[in-house]
Amino acid sequence: MRTRLFLLAVMLFVAGPLVSMPAARASEPVTLFAAASLRNALDEVIAAWKAETGKQARTSYAGSSALAKQIEQGAPADIFISADLAWMDHLQKAGLVKPETRSNLLGNSIVLVSPKAEAKPVEIGPGFPLASLLGDRRLAMADTSAVPAGKYGKAALQSLGVWEAVEGRLAQAENVRAALALVSRGEVPYGIVYATDAAADPNVVIVGHFPAGSHPPIIYPAALLAESKNPDAAAFLTHVKSPKMKPVFEKHGFTVFN
C-alpha cells in the first residue's frame, strides 16, 4: 500500500498541478514610422483601425530623413511612410523594405504661410519679392538638406529665382511641423510647409501657393519593413490604403493615389 501511494505521489509531482495553459499573448501593436506631416490624418486612420479590429498601432512621427536613419540603425518598426521617394529608395537599396509591398500612397503641395494676425496674400511667381517681405526676419522651413518639405521648398525657390536672396535668412527646423510651429507662434513672418500642415493649424493662413511645376512631385510612398515580424502589419497597411480611408486623407488635404 505504501509503495502504491509513493508511486502516485511521484506521478503527481512529475505531472505538475492540473491547471489550464495560459491564453496566447495578444499580438504586439503595429509600429509605424511616418512623416510628421501625416500626424493628424494617420491618428484618425489608427483610431478607425482600433475601432474595427480592437488592435493597437503606435506611431513615431518625425522628418522622413530622421526616421530612415533610425531604421538603418535597427530601430524596431513594421511600416515606413515617407514624404518623398528618395528616402524610401534609400532604404530599399539597402534591403530594408519589402519592395513587393511598396506603393505610392498620397500626394501633397507646398504653400507659403503667415501668422493669422499678419496674413496678406502673396503672389508667388518668378522673382517674387520674398526677401523684401521678410524684412529683417527669417523664413521658416524644414531642414533643406534632408527633410522632404525643406527640399521641396528649396527646389521651388531655386526654380523661381529667389533662393540666393533668402538662403542666409532661414530658420530651419528638424521637420515640417516644427517649421509650422515657428510661424504659428509668430516667431517668423513666413514659412514654407505642406498645404495639409497649414490646414491643421488655425493660427496660420495660407498666403500663397507654389506652382506644382516649381518643384518635384510630392509623393508619399509606403512599405512594410524587411525586418517586420508582426502578423498584423500587412493588414494594417491594407487598412491604410483601403477605399474607406480615402475620405480621411482627403479631409486633411491629401491627394489619394489608390
Automatic annotation (TrEMBL):
GO terms for biological process: molybdate ion transport. Keywords: Metal-binding, Molybdenum, Signal. The keyword Signal applies. CDD domains: PBP2_EcModA. GO terms for molecular function: metal ion binding; molybdate ion binding; tungstate binding. Molybdate binds at residues 37, 64, 149, 176, 194. SUPFAM superfamilies: Periplasmic binding protein-like II. GO terms for cellular component: outer membrane-bounded periplasmic space. Residues 1-26 form the signal peptide. Gene3D superfamilies: Periplasmic binding protein-like II. Coiled coil: none annotated. It comes from the Bacteria. InterPro entries: ModA, ModA/WtpA. Belongs to the bacterial solute-binding protein ModA family. The complex is composed of two ATP-binding proteins (ModC), two transmembrane proteins (ModB) and a solute-binding protein (ModA). This is Molybdenum ABC transporter periplasmic molybdate-binding protein.
